[in-house]
Specification:
Shape: globular
Strand content: 5-15%
Largest sheet: 7 strands, mixed
Keywords: Aminotransferase, Iron, Iron-sulfur, Metal-binding, Pyridoxal phosphate, Transferase
Family: Belongs to the class-V pyridoxal-phosphate-dependent aminotransferase family. NifS/IscS subfamily.
Number of helices: 13
Radius of gyration: 21 Å
Catalytic activity: (sulfur carrier)-H + L-cysteine = (sulfur carrier)-SH + L-alanine
EC number: 2.8.1.7
Oligomer: single chain
CATH superfamily of the largest domain: Type I PLP-dependent aspartate aminotransferase-like (Major domain)
Organism: Candidatus Pullichristensenella stercorigallinarum
Order of helices and strands: EHHEHHEHEHEHEHEEHEEHEHHEH
């Protein structure tokens, strides 16, 4: 069995999360909006308790948590949902970065086709966005700034706190894609000034198909989001459709476990990262990212003469790794993130992204492969 080293793409479901979901499926089969009987009331209680737990972790009001199908839907709702307001107010300018997740970039490009103007900020060669490069683009007709907290390809932590502080006094909406940071950088998220925040269940050992969009209130008003779907009044009118109670329960359980257990794992994860770097540096490894501002369990690197696609084919029975975003892994297009960082084609073709948890990692086969090829 191959060692799973693609946790940025998706994480295995924690057995305790699975048990929480099974309990709902087996014992609480009701629709959370069926108020006339005990099964619906039980389901509603699960949703309310789950919403409350996530809000406690982020230190926000429970009514600010809008459950969605995942971070992609949350990103699209945050960006495209502001379109009508932007048109009516004359604020049709958006600032984002060139290294955002495809969910943000494609939503921005959709608005571009609708007449909005989008500015894309490039990172430095270590993959970090400089806050001043974002803020200097903000102008009178800027509707939205959208910057991810942690990049999904490099693991680099972006200066969203600095950007949020600068924007908080104005009228520009600030959206943060926190799919990769929720559960890991919760202290920063609790103190972060934002209007909208996207989070996901399957990045924190929860189920796939569930996430949330946090819509913070300012002076009792939420961001003027229009829902993408039309139907019932679920999720305060922002997200119609029957609430997937078991997924919500699993999401909340995963968030709770990460909040309680992740801090104790940081040292182990960083040690594994340091050992991996030490083992590969003698072979010319170049880190694609910023070691001083990155998650401890993500490493994107290139090794001279080690083609990533060839490695995947040769070592598929030993390692489950990727060369970037899972949203792009079905194609052989070069990483747009590494391109934005200014890397040449050769370095990008050699790039591997490794992301793990606290399981043992045997790197000897990787080292042998590098020795044989070089």
């Amino acid at each position: 069995m191959a060692i799973y080293l693609d946790y940025c793409a998706s994480t295995p479901v924690d057995p305790r999360v699975l048990q929480a979901m099974v309990d709902v499926y087996q014992n609480k089969p009701g629709n959370a909006d069926s108020r006339t009987h005990i099964f619906g009331q039980q389901a509603k209680e699960v949703v309310n308790t789950s919403r409350k737990r996530i809000s406690e972790i982020l230190r926000i009001d429970p009514t600010e948590v809008i459950f969605t199908s995942g971070a992609t839907e949350s990103d699209n709702t945050a960006i495209i949902g502001l379109m009508d307001y932007g048109v009516s107010s004359g604020e049709k300018h958006i600032v984002t970065t060139a290294i955002e997740h495809k969910a943000v970039l494609e939503a921005a490009r959709y608005l571009e086709k609708k007449g909005f103007e989008i500015d894309y900020v490039n990172p430095d060669e270590k993959g970090r966005i400089h806050a001043e490069n974002v803020l200097k683009l903000v102008r009178k007709d800027t509707l939205l700034v959208s910057v991810m907290h942690v990049n999904n390809e490099t693991g680099v932590i972006q200066p969203v706190s600095e950007i949020g502080d600068a924007l908080s006094a104005g009228n520009v909406f600030f959206h943060v894609d926190a799919a990769q940071s929720f559960g890991k950088l919760n202290d920063e998220l609790r103190n972060l000034k934002y209007d909208m925040l996207s989070i996901s269940g399957h990045k924190i050992h929860g189920p796939q198909g569930i996430g949330a969009l946090v819509l913070k209130r300012k002076a009792y008003k939420r961001p003027p989001i229009e829902p993408l779907f039309h139907g019932g009044p679920q999720e305060y009118g922002f997200r119609p459709g029957t609430i997937p109670v078991a997924l919500v329960a699993g999401f909340a359980m995963a968030a709770d476990l990460m909040e309680k257990e992740y801090p104790a794992k940081i040292q182990t994860l960083q040690k594994q990262k340091d050992e991996l770097v030490s083992a590969l540096l003698p072979y010319g490894m170049r880190i694609n990212g910023d070691p001083d501002h990155s998650l401890p369990n993500v490493l994107n690197f290139s090794i001279p003469h080690i083609d990533a696609e060839a490695f995947f084919a040769a070592e598929k029975d030993l390692y489950a790794v990727s060369n970037g975003s899972a949203c792009n892994s079905g194609s052989y297009k070069p990483s747009y993130v590494l391109q934005a960082m200014g890397y040449d084609e050769e370095r990008i073709a050699e790039a591997l992204r490794v992301s793990w948890w606290d399981q043992p990692i045997d790197i000897k086969p990787l080292v042998r492969y590098v020795q044989d090829v070089q």
